[in-house]
Amino acid sequence: MRILFFTYPSWNHPAIGSNVQGLIKGFEELGHTVILCFINDVSSLRQAADMIYVEKSLDFTIGMNNFGMNMLSQQPETPHVSVLLDEPFNNHCIGYEAPLPKHLITYLDRSDNDILKYIFSLPKYVSKYKKHTLFMPLGGGMNKQPEERCYDIVYSSGFWPIDDVPSWKKTDSDINNTRLLSILDDALYLMQNFPVNVRDAFKESLKSRGMYDEEYLHICLPYFWRVLSYAKPWRKIETVKKLAATGRTIHLIGNGSPSGSWKDYVSGKNVIFHGALMFDETLKIIGNSKILVTDEACFNDGAHDRVFTGMLNGAAVVAEYSSYLDEQFTNQEDIFFYDWQHTDEHLGIVHKLLDDDDFRLSAVKKAYNIAINGHTWTNRAKKILDTLAILYDIK
Description:
Order of helices and strands: EHEHEEEHEEHHHHEEHEHEHEHHHH
Number of domains: 2
Radius of gyration: 22 Å
CATH topology of the largest domain: Rossmann fold
């Protein structure tokens, strides 16, 4: 099978490049040929155009988010796969809605399927072509370096700095509807106290007002990003603060974006700051850690790839609760969940994991066996191929 992958020759991002490389490797391990099209290179784009429109020699094309959309504006018959890297209502996750005759879109949280269906029903996105969707969390990355386990606890995540209050509470807010403001307030409260995603937080906020019809949720969709952009970094910061309070040594990777530092939010002799690292460097540290603690980036009915990366590299994973992960793993046996009601108590598991090697290693072994058989990039590549075979009869 010949697959054209839209990408860049290099990435100035700590994780996106690793996801691209992981998926490419997954297809190759399944015996397929992956051809790269660098979207910032004119000659590469011309060669791709020949393969798509003239030779028609490709089985399908693929790209992250909107990658490849400009090239495919002439609507070729070759199927295209858009791999979403975040929520479909994230302001930075755009372009995948372009009309294509054969288009598969993957998403990271199961609630996103309803959101995508609504987005594609909007007049500006309606076309004669049906879009297909596939729930597919990103795959985990694996480290080839020796495992020394010299880091007790690792937390790895970038974030953007937040103010004391969310944007809609500021005096210069563009939202003047006080009743709408109260819905946003309640949705944020739910996300700060329960392990729910943005869609479910809004849904519950509306239900408390007797608004059960999906129409109310759709009206609120433009405000999902407002809540997500505050709740997401808030959860990261709170997780790190709670970890620091355990007194155990924490290795903290990442910086604030576009500016800021973890040092602005957490301190202590037990917190070691590594700053922003590229994925390969991060992977080495995770591969030498005893525990990886991770939030779910609000994918509370899905999964963040850090969960699988930790497991595939022999770390015990302490993760923010996700109903999807709860189906895949067994709490207190191969994964250790924390939520926003009992955060201190749940994160206290780090003491037992660090003090009882037999307990930790037993959990690590069980988690690795599940992750290696179901959550690598090769697994994800196979899932895409299986779906394309059903949709478009690609052998």
